[in-house]
Request: fold
Amino acid sequence: MPVIAIPPCAKSHDYEESIRRAGGEVRILDYGKDAPADVVRSVDGILLPGGGDVEPALYGEAPHPAFDAVEAGRDAYELELARRATDADLPLLAICRGIQVLNVARGGTLVQHIPDVPEEQRDNVNHVMREPPYGIAHDIWVTEGSLLERLMQERLDGDTLPVNSRHHQAVKAVGEGLVVSATAPDGIVEAVEDPGKRFCVGVQWHPENFYRTGEFREIFEAFIAAARR
Reply:
């Protein structure tokens, strides 16, 4: 089975179950023991999970008052992991905070606090619906011709896909090599991908929370298939 590395995070269970049910084996990393260079050489794919905010100084901004710092050292570790995975063309799936890490690793920037986006641009989209974790918060619009569209085609209603949501930050300026593959009705970026890589997909929602019912299993299965190759 392909081995998928996941950096440590507070709620790893659903990520692990999603990988296992798609046919992969999970390796939870240790910041102190698993150097990113060694990880990339020894696993078949990387999953970047959710968590707190990326340090704004890493993309040239001062922190917003709502800044929610992550564990010490996590930003540097995950950014290096994302960059090394990119250089090695190692399959990469980035979820919630993960899409933000991926974007910053590619030189992109972030919307630091979505409620600061002008009211007339936000279209009453609820980006923070914490309970239940698998509850549908809003629709996203999936880009025609994208990998995400191909993976989710049986679940799409036209170009529309319902997702859960709990985040206050999002991709702003898109990083090098990435393209937007989904947006919310208010224009907030909901997915990116790199068409030049074997598999490099970032999503802003939490597909792992649906591991029991399988609404987004195709994403994990495609990730594992790429890792197997």
In short: The radius of gyration is 16 Å. The mean pLDDT is 95. The helical segments are 13-21, 36-42, 74-88, 97-105, 119-122, 147-152, 217-228. Residues 193 and 201 are 4 Å apart (CA to CA).
